[in-house]
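Workshop exercise sheet. Pairs work together: one partner reads the sequence aloud, the other fills in the structure field after running the prediction. Swap roles for the next sheet.
Pair: D.N. / O.F.
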Amino acid sequence: MRSYHLPGRSPVIARHAMAATSHPAASLVAIETLKRGGNAVDAAIAATALLCVIEPAMTGIGGDCFALLHKPGKGSDAGGVIGLNASGLAPQAATPEWYANAGIKQLQVTTPHAVTVPGAIDGWATLLKDHGTMSLAEVLGPAIDAAEHGFPAAPRIAHDWAKLTDKIALHAGARQHLLIDGRAPRVGEIVRFPALAATLKTIAREGRDGFYKGVIAEDMVAELKELGGLHTMDDFAAQSSHAVTPISVPYAGAELHELPPNNQGIVALIILRMLDKLGARSAGALTVERYHLMLECSRLAYAARDAFVADPLHVNVPADAMLSDGFIADLAKRVDRTQRIAELGPIPRPKGSDTVCLSVADKNGMVVSFINSLFSGFGSGIVTRKTGVVLQNRGTGFVLDPAHPNCIAPRKRPMHTLVPALATKDGRPWLSFGVMGGAFQATGHAYVLTNMLDYGMDVQEAIDHPRVFFEGGEVQVELPLVGAVASGLRALGHKTSLRDDPWGGGQAIEINSANGVLIGGSDPRKDGCALGY
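Structure field:
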């Protein structure tokens, strides 16, 4: 339990329903959607659509989404955990030979080659059709209102926006829609997106095809082609979401469910299995040993990701082998409690990035963990001038080596960092959560879960707890850890630095069946909150 002498927040506890998002307005919209008869899927998409307007650096309709949900039912087999993959496809013309002939050795963030077809709208439509009760028109209402009539820029959102003005300035459409007199909006300043409002109205009226087959798609293709992209109308029309079977591992009396490749959810599972093998829970929550072991397990798990994770519709991804006893034992043997492992070789290091995640639980027992993202801040930085769509840069998740399983190819999905999470106990939903932050997300899952299961933290404490992660060849620590923990990590061979902004942001809902309540937590690293009734 937190000290009430110190700044902080308590978990939110409610009987009927709960929403936890990165913006209070989105949490409120989710609750309002539930109160007017919608279920958790309806509420999650209504909240996400609003975030695509009011938190535009982190998410947008030009991005991708993933979901894990547990539907109500009888007994421990209440439908099980259901997964949705709505990641976008590379263009049909995107072959490694084309890039080699063009002299392109890496897919740069702010080029059209970083843009995969946005999967989010198709994902929303699929979830609503299969599991929701409302139409796209109904759930898009709050987002349309905010885009048309304006919203105040929240503090963290304004902070992120201001840091990205140089990127925004690179593209005419971005300058047109995302800057006010050449600058980012200030805290509390009203922002309007009239072109995006019109686009959302078209989607509300025409549904999924209004985005992928009509004038909106024509505008996206024209913008990308003008910049040298390979995208066609056929590429947009071909985009489709698909149901996937989640993968899971047990840990400390719970079962963590993640999405399978091309998603990086398997990384969180590898980390947990390694921690379990090492008996890492013996270290205290704020000890150097705990953070050292988390870092070393993460480094090895991400190395496995970078070697094997790709689109299983195109290549064989050995997911079962990556979670096998033998593979985990081999990785765990390499961990030294007394020093950092020597360099792992020429394996691409994880990169940080931007996302929104949210969790919703409704009064009937449906639980949804949902995540929607543009990848980097404002994605590719390319914004369609007529329709106001910010386009993602998920193509940078590919490599261009034809021998690598994650090499770009026609209509292929890249290795993807977006990872919602859902943990069960005895087959029943126990924790719906996510932690934003690009590659960090998988380690973020391990932090939150071990904070609760190993160290007895409540859901809010588990999210608040300080984090470290590696980027750019060094370990970046959050401010509370710059003293003894950072010094101890350096003594073990880690190069450390203070991270400018904290690692990610998290949202979580615990389903406490013993008391019949929902317990929500929301990350103070963002503007959001948990709300329930």
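Discussion prompt: The radius of gyration is 22 Å. What would you look at next?
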